[in-house]
Amino acid sequence: MKDSLIIILCFLVGIILAIAGLLPDWLEPSRYTTWMLYLLLFCIGVGLGMDKEAFSSFKGRRPRYLLLPVATILGTFAGCLLAFLVLHLLLSETVSLKDTLAIGSGFGYYSLSSVMLSESRGAEIATIALAANLIREILTLLCAPLIARFFGPYAVVSCGGAASMDTTMAVAVRAGGSKIAPVALYHGFLLTVLVPFLITLIVGI
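Above: the chain sequence. Below: its structure as C-alpha cells.
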C-alpha cells in the first residue's frame, strides 16, 4: 500500500501548498495538465510494450477467463448506477450519472483517470475519481481474503480492476494460487488500455 499512500500524500501536499499560497504564479495547472497526461500515456505504452510476458501469458487462456474484464466493466457500471440512484435519493444535489460512470471508468487507475477528468470535468470530479479509485484498490488489498472466501479468487482479480496486473496481483495469487497470475495480468492489461478510451467516450456523450 506504500504507493497508494505516496499518492495520497502528494495530493494533500499540493492542496496545502496551494491554499497557503506558497506556489509561484507561473505554476498554473491548466498549462501543464494536458502535456503531463500525454507523458503519462506514453510511459504506460512504453511499459506495456517492454513487458514481453504480458503478451505471451495471454496465449492458451480459456475463453471464459478472457471474458473477466467484460464482467468487471459491467459490474463496475452497475455499481456506479446503484451508487448514483442511492445518492440521488438521499441528497438533493449529487454528481450526474455521466460523471459517476466516468469516475467508475478509472477501474482503480487513479493516476490516469484523475488527470483526464481534471482536464475535462474539473477539479471536483477529478478529486472524487482519485478518492474512489484509491479506495477501490485499498479495499481490494485489505479485503482480498474475504472476497475470495465468499466469491472466489477471480472476484479478487475483478475487484482490483486495472491494478490487477501490478498492485493487487499479489493478493489475488495468494487467494487463488499461481494459476491466477496470467489471468490477473491479462485483466489488468486490457483495463489499463481501455481506461482512457472509456473515459473519453463517456465524457463526450
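The mean pLDDT is 82.
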